[in-house]
Each structure stands twice: as C-alpha cells, then as structure tokens.
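Attaching the record inline, Q. Sequence:
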Amino acid sequence: KENRAVRFETRASSGDALIDGSGTYSLETETIEARLVLANLSLGGLLSTVTGMEGLAGWLSGELEAQGTLESPGLRASLTVQDGAVRENEMEPFHLNLTSDGAEIDLRLDLGDERLARGRVLLEAPFPLQAEIDLSKVPFTTIVQGLTDLEPELAMEGKLDLNMALSRPENLRYRAFIEEYRAVLPQMVQRASDFTIEGDLRALSIRDFSAVAEDRSLSLAGVIPLESEGSFDFDVAGDLDLSVLAPLLQDAELDGRASVQMKIGGTLSKPELTGTVEVDANSGRWSVVEWEEIVVRVRSERGRLFIDTATMRALGGRVSLQG
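Structure, as predicted:
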C-alpha cells in the first residue's frame, strides 16, 4: 500500500511466450488502472481441452487496458492470432478489437485486412449481445477441410445475425440470409441464392433453399429439431448424380442417378419418413462388389417401408426384391 493505493504485478514467460500485467487500484477514488500484455501464446495449448477445438493452431498476442471504477471500467483490448490453422489448413490472421465506455462493449473482428464481424454487448443484466457476421469473409473451405475428411470448396454471400443474453446463452437466436451459395463438390458445382436459415438451440428452419448443379436440383424447406424430442416438419426434394456420393464411400465407383421426394416428420429420436426414393444406377463397384445395373423404387409411409421394385444385375445373374 502506498498513498492509499494498491499496486499489483504479474509476469510469466516460457520461451517466446509471455504474460505481463500490472496495475493500480486507488482506495480513495475506488478506481483502477491496469494493463495486460500477451505475446506468442499457443492457441492449440490454450484450447487443447475444449471439445472440437483440438485441430486449431496459431499464436495469440495482444494487449488489454482498463481504467475507471470496478463497476463501470473503460476497456480497450486488441488481440491477434497469427499463423492460424485448422488441421494444418492455414488461415489469415485474426484481429479482435474491443472498446468500452463502461456502459457497453463494441467488438470488431477482422480476418486479414477485412472486417469479418462486429457486435455490441450492453453491460447491464442480462448483458444482451448483438452481432453481425459477413458470410463472404468466413473461410468455409478451410474450416470444412480442416474439421472433416471432405475437400469441397465453399463460398457464401450474405450475413448472419446473432442475438443472445450472455447471462442466458441457452437463449441464443440466429438468422442467416444467404444471397449466394456456391459449392464445388466432386463431379459438380452447386449453386443456390436468396434463402434463409434461422432458429435457436432447440430447432432451426430453412426457407427457400433451392440448389442447382447442371441438370440436378435439391430443394429443402422446413424445421429441423436440435433436441431429441423436438419435432420435424421438413421437406426434401431433388435428384443427383450418384458419382457425387463416391468420395463418401471407401473404394467406390458409382454411375447413375437418384431422386427423392420426402417429407420428414416425427422427432429427432424417432423420425417418420413419407415419400419416395428412386435409384437408377449403371455399372459400378463398392469394395469387392460389382454390378451392371441397379433399379430401386422405394416408398416410405409413416415409418413403414415399401419396396415397389429392387433389382440388381451382377455376377452374371439378377436379384429382385419386392414387398
């Protein structure tokens, strides 16, 4: 204690990594002045125990300053992640800037030299957060390739709005309006425009999704539950070239087409399908099984499956199923 003030300091280092903080708290004015410096902290080490974050890498550096009363301090922070990667898929640097006047916090997140997101938090219970993300700046390709074994190229134009109370994160709500979507998938390029995805942690809804790829199409609409007892009300319609499924099946060669008209009801734990699936496959192979032709016509009605036609020509013979 000096002149009725408390001074505090902390410092830790390991190799190039550094945490250095200091500050003063005045007992007379009940105000604080503090500064914290971070340098070259391993992002992978910091997030190693967080489920789903094991593949993240990068180096975190930044600075935080606080000044004012404990109840309403002014804040300024700048954090940067350099050499970021998701499972060795490199990303541009992230920059997070935060400022506060004691009543609210303004946030800005940049990817490289462009703004990725901005937001605001009111510093009064329940601490509502509003944020807007520019989907055209999100590195979807890097994220998907880093978190899965798939290798599509994905890009979107549009925005994602987030609303939640930090004291009640379970009440998160989101709404994305996608002006343009483009996916380069095996054997095709898929496009869609002007559709909406919105919801909360209990269910999401998709409206007006209609994707085309050459002479193929896919339409999605309705509600998808995210809780086991939540209810489906979802429609799927479209057709596709079977060759796009080959990368999902180990050692497969597929040629032909499939079409689907399906309504999904029931719950996530017990869905009910009503509709039809038709498959017309030419010669193909999956592992050691080869065929010359497959024709399938299947109907589903509230959990009951009806095989109108199922034939396969293989190994010089023909197999048929019905019932």
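The longest helix spans residues 140-147. The first strand starts at residue 5 and ends at 14.

More tomorrow.
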